Amino acid sequence: MFTTLATAVVRRPGRVIAGWLLAIAALTAATFAVYGPGGPRPADSQADILPARYESAQAAAIAARMFPEPPGSWSRWR
After folding, report:
1. Which of 3, 12, 26, 50 stands the most exposed, by the fewest C-beta atoms within 10 Å?
2. CA dist 6 to 3, 15, 21, 47, Å?
3. The pTM is what?
4. Distance separating alpha carbons of residues 46 and 42, to the nearest angstrom
């Protein structure tokens, strides 16, 4: 199996490169179709993607209430 694949790659390197470029273009187009031109949006924290019933999500909500971000402050995660 690997011998056949290796032989095909060595005999037709242009087709292999074209295939990889086509695969990259297809994945890029699929990413834009799903997420839009901005790409995937990262969550502010891991707790943002957890269901509210999880203890860490509840703790993050309490921490956000008790220690709000001061107005005009800059956070590198936003």
Report:
1. 3
2. 5, 13, 19, 46
3. 0.50
4. 10
